Amino acid sequence: MKKYSLTVITLVLCTILTSFTYQKVTTIYLIGDSTVADYSLEDDYDSKRYPLVGWGQMFQAFFVKDSLKYVEHLLEDVREVRVDDRAKGGRSTRTFFQEGRWSAIYKTLQKGDVVMMQFGHNDGAENYPERYVNIDGYKEFLRLFIDQTRLRGALPILLTPVARNYPWREGKLHNVHGEYPQAVKEVAREMDVKLIDLNELSMVHFSEKGQDYVTENYFMNFPAGQFQAYPDGQKDNTHFQVAGGKLIAQLVFNAMKKL
User: Over its length of 259 residues, how does the chain's per-residue pLDDT go in tens digits?
Assistant: First the structure.
């Protein structure tokens, strides 16, 4: 009798402790190109890449405990969010798939996880045939990622490609991505997928800030000698400095709250 009582007490205590320590960890997978990538994962980041960032590199910081309430409508019984940034520079929807990068994610996807996908910079690069994907192919690969995400019980979220820092006309930044943002919107409607129009959000914000401010503070434009990794300086209106990466990550997080 005494032994039985101790067993019951132990089981009750284990149940109570489990209720206090249980955590549902939701993984948000980011797939896309260099504008999303996490460069801090590379060796010698400080000396070889800094201040280059992708917005995905800055995204984890938004998922602190007090902020989870703003996105709980998208996440199932979540206690913790882990951002797993699998984006890689130079990748289009096709090359991301062909290299097995999507397969690696698919194998680990869990019910309740999230896959956020932002492609287009390289899909539309006709001058790089090894990357280029026409509009029909682009849409088809997005459909594949969406279908397989849903097969795992995870949530797909589509993003239109973030703006580059050109072309500017009459004080406003305009779309440089041709028909690719519209293609994302069409797939989102067709498959009833949540959409963040990051192209529009970033163009509007950059236009409000002005070309000079955006060029100097958000994109990789700076003189020689300012950063160890770029002794000759840099003129790059596609990729982000730290402030630009943080800003885009904030735009994405704010948009998630409104989905």
Answer: 445 555 554 454 444 444 444 458 999 999 999 999 999 999 999 999 999 999 999 999 999 887 888 888 888 777 899 999 999 999 999 999 999 999 999 999 999 999 999 999 999 999 999 999 999 999 999 999 999 999 999 999 999 999 999 999 999 999 999 999 999 999 999 999 999 999 999 999 999 999 999 999 999 999 999 999 999 999 999 999 999 999 999 999 999 999 9
Decide if 209 is inside a domain: yes
Radius of gyration of the chain (CA): 21
pTM (predicted TM-score): 0.90
206 phi and psi angles, rounded to 5 deg? -65, -40
Residue 3 in domain: no
Domain around 74: 33-258
Residue 5 lies in a domain: no
Whether residue 51 is contained in a domain is answered as yes
Helices (H) and strands (E) in the chain, counts: 9, 9
